[in-house]
Each structure stands twice: as C-alpha cells, then as structure tokens.
Design a protein that fits this description.
about 140 residues; alpha+beta; seven-stranded antiparallel sheet; globular
Length: about 140
C-alpha cells in the first residue's frame, strides 16, 4: 500500500477485525519473528525473507487472479495449526524490521486481507513449522519443515 506504513496497515486490520484480530506486543512479535527466521531463513537481515529460504519452497503465481490466490492461500492456511484457530500475520510491505504481527482467526484472514489494497506479508502458525509469504510479484511462497 503505497504511502502507508506497516503500523498503519496493522491498525487498519485490527480495526476491520472488530475484535477478532489483535496486535501482538512488540517484544512477543520479535520473539515469534526470530523463531520463524531461525527455522526458515538463511539471512534474517534480508528485507525479503522469501528470497532467502533454507528449505525448498512451493510457489504459486497468481498474477491478478483473486480466485487463484484465494484457493491457493486458503489451502496453505488451512494446513496451519493455530492456538484457538488463529494464525500470525506479519506485515512487511517492503519495509525493514521491526514488523508488526497480528493474530487472526483462520476463518477471517482472507476476508480481512481482501478489505485492503495489496501489501506484502507472511502468515505462520504458532509452531512456526509452516509459513506462507505473499510477495510483491503476486506469488505465494510456502515453506514448511
């Protein structure tokens, strides 16, 4: 979202979630991001973690086709385990860290993402075994242990 910071995007998502989405405290968010990076990323200083993955990733190019995105994204997210049915959403949008992290119910995630113009992010489960990135190339990049 041009001209919008990751923290502004996070605030909008939490507001749109009407109580179903909540912002994780910065220290807890940094701990979660560190865990994702240690499990999936060679270079945690890289701006685009999806370009520095330790494991072979599954990619889905969806271009401008929202239906292809929705199907592929939902398939990845439904495989994720989550505390109370929630997953973590890290908002990166071409900015350097720190990135805000929001916990969102899996069944509300797609709806919330479709409410805003595109921004770059990744979603992961509490165990951090699975992560899926939505890149500025309109490509989903999924990594799992």
């Amino acid at each position: 979202m041009m001209g919008t910071t990751v923290n502004e995007i996070a605030s909008k998502l939490v507001a749109l979630g009407a109580g179903s989405a909540r912002l994780i405290a910065p220290n807890a968010a940094n701990d979660l991001l560190h865990q994702v990076a240690s499990m999936h990323v060679f270079d945690a200083c890289a701006r685009y973690w999806w370009s520095s993955l330790k494991h072979q990733a599954e990619t889905t190019e969806y271009g401008s086709d929202t239906d292809v995105w929705r199907h592929a994204f939902d398939e990845h997210v439904q495989k994720m385990g989550g505390e109370g049915g929630g997953v973590f959403l890290a908002i990166t949008d071409d900015e350097d860290r720190p990135w805000p992290v929001i916990v969102v119910p899996k069944d509300r995630l797609i709806h919330l993402l479709l409410e805003l113009p595109f921004f770059e992010y990744f979603v992961f489960e509490k165990s951090c075994d699975r992560v899926v990135f939505d890149t500025h190339h309109n490509t989903l990049v999924a990594s799992r242990l």
